[in-house]
Amino acid sequence: MSTPETRVIAGRNPVREALQQDDGRIEKVLVQQGGSLGEIRAAAKAAGVPVQTVPQQKLDRLAPKARHQGVVAIAAPVAYADVAAMLHNIAADRDVVRATKPILVALDEIEDPHNFGAILRSAVAAGASGVLVPERRMAPLSAVTVKASAGGALRIPIARVPNLAETLLGLKERSYWIAGLAGEAGGKQPGTETVWAYDWDRPVCIVVGNEGRGLRERVRSVCDTLVSIPMRGPMESLNASVAAGIALFAAARTRDDGA
User: Fold this and answer.
1) Distance (Å, rounded) from C-alpha 259 to C-alpha 255?
2) How far apart are CA 179 and CA 194, in angstroms?
3) Are 145 and 153 in contact (CB under 8 A)?
4) β-strands 130-134, 177-181: how paired?
5) Within 10 A of 44 (CB to CB), how many other CB atoms are there?
6) CA 54 vs CA 16, 61, 72, 117, 227: distances in Å
7) Strand partners for 49
8) Each residue's pLDDT tens digit, 145-191
C-alpha cells in the first residue's frame, strides 16, 4: 500500500478555495510576515484551521516553483473527521455508549509525527474507535505520520478540536470516563492508579500527554483518574507511544472480543 503524500497549496485563490471546500484536509495556513491577507485569515478561522506567520523564505522553500503570493496551505494526506459526526457514528447516545463501551484516544500536544503514527497504529490494533487531537501544537497528520502508523491513520477516524479540555468535558456528558496517562512520574504520583488496577470495563477515553511536558494542567484537571505504568527497572518514564500502547491493550483485554 502506497503512502499518500502531504500536499502544498500555494497562492491566494487556491488556498481560499481549499479552505472553502472544508474537507478536513487543511492542516494549517502559513502567511508571510507583514502581509495582511485578512480574507485568507477569516476563511481559515471559519474552517477551524490555524494560521502561522512566517518569513517569506519559508514560503519560498515550501513552494519553490509556485507564485505563492504570501500564502501557503499544508494539506494532510488524510482528512480529519468532524468530531460531532465521529462521536455520533461511534455511539449515537449515552445508552449506546454505556452498552458498547468504546475506547477513544486523545492526544495532548504530541509533537513527534513518528509518535503520532505509532499511537494510531496501536489504537487501530487495540480496537479503539476514534482519536481526538488539538488544532495547535500537535504533530501534523502528514505522510510521515501515515507511514509511521503502518496505514493505521487510514483506518480510524481522527478529529481535530479547538479546545481539548472542553471536548473531554463533553465526552463525560456522553458517559465516557477520562483516564489520563501519568507516565512522566513512573507511576509514583499520588492519586494515580496503575494500568493493571484500573477498571477499564467502561466507555473510556485515554489521554496521552506531550512527550516531555506530559499532560497540560487544564487537561489533567478534567480527567476522572490518572493511570500510570509501574517501572520495575531504573527508568522514570516510557516513550509516549509505548505508554499509550500499553494502556490501550490494558483497556482492550476487558472487551469480550479481546479476552
Assistant:
1) 6
2) 11
3) yes
4) unpaired
5) 22
6) 18, 12, 10, 26, 39
7) none
8) 888 999 899 899 999 999 999 999 999 999 999 999 986 444 445 45
Q: How far is it, in rounded angstroms, from Cα 82 to Cα 7?
A: 21
> pLDDT of 68-78, one tens digit each?
989 999 888 88
Question: 257: pLDDT confidence band, cut at 50, 70 and 90?
Answer: low
Q: 79-113 b/e with 16+ CB inside 10 Å = b?
A: ebbbbeebbeebbeeeeebeeebbbbbbbbbbebb
State the cell numbers at 27.
492542516
CA–CA separation, 202 vs 254, rounded Å? Answer: 9
- Is the C-alpha dihedral spanning 200, 130, 187, 162 positive or negative? negative
Instruction: Answer positive or negative: Cα dihedral of 33, 38, 39, 43.
Output: positive
Backbone φ and ψ for 246, nearest 5 degrees, come out as -65, -45
Return the amino acid letter for 246: I
Q: Which amino acid type is present at position 84?
A: A
Across the chain, how many H-helices and E-strands are there?
A: 10, 11
Reading the block at residue 94, the C-alpha cell is 449515552
Q: List all residues 6 or more positions away from 225 whose beta carbon is below 8 Å from its beta carbon.
A: 177, 178, 179, 180, 192, 193, 198
* Beta-ladder partners of 181: 227
* Integer angstrom CA distances of residue 205 from 126, 171, 183, 217: 13, 8, 16, 17
